[in-house]
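Hypothesis: this fold can be encoded by more than one sequence.
Test: take the structure tokens below, design a sequence, compare later.
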């Protein structure tokens, strides 16, 4: 895959189901934009000067770019499997770097301490060995063979289980999590984090899910995921430095941080530096 600069990437800017002809005024990488439906009911986005921006609609969201994307939006094949419930969680504004938001999503070591008795609990705090790679053909960061004990791995879980995880970073401000599906062993629940960079130190986070869960009311699914992310928000908004350091000497990684190290290396390789700190 041929990569381009951050201005030429796709970014989520709203839920298609919630956009009207009146539209939504928002920001993308410091620039005002307007998201709306045109007279034909199709999604449209314009820059401050009225210039139309590229648009695609996928995963329930409207995506746009300030530049000219050289590739299609990344695919999540599992989304098209029959029987999955597609959950629009909404948006949470966070005073942090958009890159920090993604990195936090990749971190499992904080589960017992931030998401106590839900995604983790003491004394089950050890992060077992797992595999991290930058897949050259797809040009994506992947973490596989991740396992962690969780008291309530999903809203559909009825008790504690050891959960299998895979993490994928297909774009600089997006991450896809595949995890054990309690109602359907052998399948993966898909939980995504789509991040809209408003500024280098401010973002809108759009969680979205594709689940096998026929029983849980939609409101409960949304509330469960919002609860998880709101627990993360207080941590994100107090991280120092505010921007994500790409200098490997700025922060000392541990074994649990292998995915973060690969993510930062991948960002630096492609000069994805909006929201990053380059020097100490």
């Amino acid at each position: 895959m041929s990569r381009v600069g951050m201005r030429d990437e796709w970014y989520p800017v709203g839920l298609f189901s919630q956009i009207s002809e009146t539209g939504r005024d928002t920001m993308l990488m410091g620039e005002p934009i307007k998201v709306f439906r045109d007279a034909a009911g199709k999604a449209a986005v314009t820059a401050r000067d009225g210039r139309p921006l590229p648009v695609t609609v996928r995963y329930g969201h409207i995506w746009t770019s300030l530049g000219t994307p050289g590739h299609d939006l990344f695919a999540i094949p599992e989304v098209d499997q029959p029987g999955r419930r597609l959950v629009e969680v909404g948006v949470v504004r966070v005073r942090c770097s958009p890159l920090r938001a993604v990195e936090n999503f990749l971190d499992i070591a904080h589960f017992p301490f931030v998401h106590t008795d839900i995604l983790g609990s003491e004394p089950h705090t050890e992060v077992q060995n797992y595999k991290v790679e930058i897949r050259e053909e797809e040009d994506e960061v992947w973490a596989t063979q991740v396992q962690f004990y969780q008291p309530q791995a999903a809203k559909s879980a009825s008790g504690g289980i050891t959960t299998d995880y895979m993490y994928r970073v297909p774009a600089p401000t997006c991450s896809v999590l595949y995890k054990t599906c309690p109602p359907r062993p052998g399948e993966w629940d898909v939980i995504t984090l789509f991040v809209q960079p408003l500024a280098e130190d401010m973002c809108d986070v759009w969680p979205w899910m594709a689940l096998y869960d026929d029983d849980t009311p939609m409101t409960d699914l949304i509330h469960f995921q919002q609860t998880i992310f709101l627990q993360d928000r207080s941590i994100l908004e107090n991280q120092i430095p505010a921007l994500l350091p790409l200098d490997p000497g700025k922060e000392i990684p541990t074994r649990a941080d292998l995915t973060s190290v690969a993510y930062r290396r991948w960002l630096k390789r492609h000069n994805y530096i909006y929201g990053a700190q380059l020097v100490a």
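Helices lie at 98-106, 111-114, 218-236, 258-269. The longest strand covers residues 188-199.
Hypothesis status: open.
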